[in-house]
Amino acid sequence: MADRGGRLAHVDTLRFVAAAAVVAQHYVERAAQGGADWFLRLGPGVFGVALFFMISGFVIPLAVQKTLSWRTYWLQRLFRIMPMYLVTFALVIMLGWIGVPAYFHVSDFGVASYISNALLVFEYVGHPAALGVAWSLSLEYVWYAFFAFVFIVSKPKHATHVCIGFAICLIAAALWSMWSATRLPFERIAMLNAALWGYAVWSWSAGHVSGRALRWCGAISAVVLIFSQWVGFKHFQHPSVRFETGLIAWGAASVVFTSAMTIKSLQRSLVLSSQSCQKLGTISFSVYLLHEPVNHCLGMWMSGWSQAAVAVLATVALSFVSYRFVEMPSLKLARIIAASRKAPHAPGLLMTPIGTHQSTANK
Length: 363
Description:
By secondary structure, this protein is mostly helical. Helices cover 71% and strands 0% of the residues. It contains 14 helices and no strands. Helix 4 packs parallel to helix 13 (284-298). It is globular. 37% of the residues are buried. Residues 350-363 have low confidence and may be disordered.
């Protein structure tokens, strides 16, 4: 169900749900001070990030339908994330300099750490992160590159094959991890698997793959995910994530995403089609980036649940401002630059728009 601007209302609502879950994880951790273990064991943070990656896997092919070249594709991806991230990074640096305890470490960064954080490559060069959620943005660019590769070497009708192939590789990686006694970053690898599942669901919704193929893909991916999570968080011990927590969070994210994207009656429901939820979904990226700095800043004067309540209100208000004055102008600038330099069409980049071909969704 799309609004006048072409946005899918139910997708924006899912973005809101994902951002709210991540905010809940971080704010409850600080406000409850160990008194809400039952809630944190549900893994709302993992749920939110997993849901974000599934959504990304669904919407990137939608964006590619309107893209005329790979240069435009990367230009749009760059301007979607980097401007708002760099604004938040600058805010974090400032907070570190003025003495906000959570960001003391940023004031001690060397030039290399500042550069690696600005470019979102800090994890790959062994530097500390300035912003806690930035690891997922770094991984998002890995997904963008992986999707480009997948789309060059295959077609949307092969999306379920790609998803199953990645799942098989994940099993092989898990078995090697056990054999070599080397723990791999299974949570991050699983996020790429989540994005591929989103791509598979999009391919089904666009009529490229059958319902039967999607169900087989989902079943295989679920089994592989459970096994890899068991290896990563049960066979190997993790200091902050339990296997049961991951299982609940991943299961919930998969059910919520798949149900919302495949059941038309749910998409038309009052919740998923709510204009209020949709508006909150449009600012979800700003909320995701700003909620931690806002909370840490307020922590200098407040504490407990009152801090969390004020932080929620402040984060939402600032996010509307940043969406209006940072995100929207950045996306507009990307379109202007793309239009000013007409690059040759990338072979096979354009895809058949949804609704212009025979759907196989009911097969």
